[in-house]
Amino acid sequence: MPVDPSLVGREFPAPAPLTVTPDRVAAFAAAVGHPGESVPPTFPIVLAFDAMQAFLDAERIDLHRIVHGEQRFAYVRPLAAGDELSATLTVTGLRQIGGADIIATTSEITDATGAVVCTGKATLVHSGGAA
Amino acid sequence: MNAGDTLETKTFTITRADLVAYADASGDHNPIHQDEGVARSVGLPGVIAHGMYTLALVGRAVAEWTGGAEVVDVGAKFTSPVVVPAEGGAEVVIGGTVKSVADGLVTLALEVTCDGQKVLGMPKAVVKHVDRA
Fold first, then answer.
1. Do A31 and B26 touch (CB under 8 A)?
2. Are B9 and B93 in contact (CB under 8 A)?
3. Is A4 a member of any domain?
4. What is the pTM of this model?
5. Per the database record, which ranges form the FAS1-like dehydratase domain (chain A) (predicted)?
6. Which of B113, B107, B110 is CA-nearest to residue B127?
7. Of A47, A98, B77, B128, which one has the greatest count of Cβ atoms within 10 A?
8. A100 located within any domain
9. Cβ neighbours for B1, distance < 8 A, ≥ 6 positions apart
10. Does some domain include residue A67?
């Protein structure tokens, strides 16, 4: 079943903020073997994923029909322990290729003051399967 | 780092156990990264690594190359899946060169392959330049 084209421009916030705790960072770093003390640069995916899941839930899209097509993170400043981050995903584009929906999204990741820390741009490939 | 420098190629192995650990750490429990049947049901060749796992390995390589320099930009297209077998693992090879050093930023050109095939399209990493005199 194709994704609703009126989605473009709609916003989906992650349901809860994420506090960047040393434990959370250490668990993520351990899972990917990231060295040293710095926060792995792909760490904000934890929150961007929550925003994406909110989007999928709202549109009743099954996660297992989604493959990640592209992801970029552009930083305004590095993440630091203690940051309380929020994310809002905006659907920025939608097209169909060969029966799949190519969903373009931007997730603004902001700190407790509302300042943008990092912007994530993702493409999600949705294979609709039987409607 | 100077423009044109070739960085030491990094090889990382991804196992199914790594994908379980990554799912727990990232919150991404998509079953295409765990369950052969589900993966095949949506047209994939088998269980595949999270694209973000492969991209995290890029982050790891960059941190190892630069001594943990501040990353200002990282990203890629996930052009070909990294299929992770139930036994053993998939080997991801990350090569890099310094593309440019300008305005306090180092841009790396990357090539990320598995079984000799490119798995990331337009992989990019930009870090703050740190002078190690």
1. yes
2. yes
3. no
4. 0.94
5. 27-119
6. B107
7. A47
8. yes
9. B66, B98, B101, B106, B129
10. yes
User: Domain with A109 in it: what CATH number?
Assistant: 3.10.129.10
Smallest CA–CA distance, residue B72 to chain A, in Å, is 5
Could you tell me how many residues make up chain B? 133
CB atoms A41 and B24 under 8 Å: no
Contact B75 A72 (CB under 8 A): yes
Judged by a CB distance cut-off of 8 A, whether residue A22 touches chain B is: no
Residue B12 counted as domain residue: yes
Nearest by CB: B68 against A27, A38, A42: A38
Q: What is the pLDDT along chain A (131 residues), one digit of tens a residue?
A: 677 888 999 999 999 999 999 999 999 999 999 998 889 999 999 999 999 999 999 999 999 999 999 999 999 999 999 999 999 999 999 999 988 999 999 999 999 999 999 999 999 999 876 44
Contacts of A50 in chain B (CB under 8 A): 27
CB-CB under 8 Å, B75 with A70: yes
B65-108 pLDDT, tens digit per residue, is 999 999 999 999 999 999 999 999 999 999 999 999 999 999 99
> What ipTM was reported for this prediction?
0.93
